[in-house]
Amino acid sequence: LAEYHYDYSKNPAYRQHNLLTGLMAMNGQVVMPDEEVSHWKMIADKIKDFKYGWVIVNGSDEAWEWGGGICGTSTGVFNPVWKAGLEITERKPHSVFYNSLYSSEDIGLDATVYRPKPDLKYKNNFDSAIAFYVKNDEEKKTVTVQLLGNSPYRNVKIEGPFFKSKREIEWTREMEYFDGTKQKEVLASRYYAIK
Prior knowledge:
Layout: E1 2-7, H1 13-24, E2 30-31, E3 36-38, H2 39-43, E4 52-57, E5 61-66, H3 71-84, E6 87-90, E7 96-97, E8 121-123, E9 130-137, E10 142-148, E11 153-163, E12 168-177, E13 182-190, E14 193-194
Parallel strand pairs: 7-14
Antiparallel strand pairs: 1-10, 2-9, 3-8, 4-5, 6-8, 9-10, 11-12, 12-13
Helix pairs in contact: 1-3
């Protein structure tokens, strides 16, 4: 249905660990039709395995706290879920977008997660189950998240990023059904800062 590639070679060791711990927990996860998923609940059994690292607090401050980098797991899941055309029921972008951690080409396609909020939630609005396949290439320091299943759409067209201002970015997705009808949605992200 869709996939997301992430090059984590420039990430610090704690972030690499937390990112891979959370994403590998998604490998093989199945979401049934009409099921709504909380990403936080999906990775919650890995809580004891996450390490301390830098996290964003109070909008733009940084603090050394538990779980630094786990937003990489929600971003890694959000991208294929959104690009496949699934229904997003809850999603919040970072308050600060770091070009050093994420590709500038993907600006506006991030999703935060932390306990207990914010969370990433999505619903399988397809008629059949979907499944995640996650592959880590340790040599190349890249991880790939694939979403597998049968799509109700003939085509999903993604366009962006469109800069509405220096810190406000939009993306669009247009889902075309097999009967020719189309549904278009806008995804907006606003940041305190882009670094």
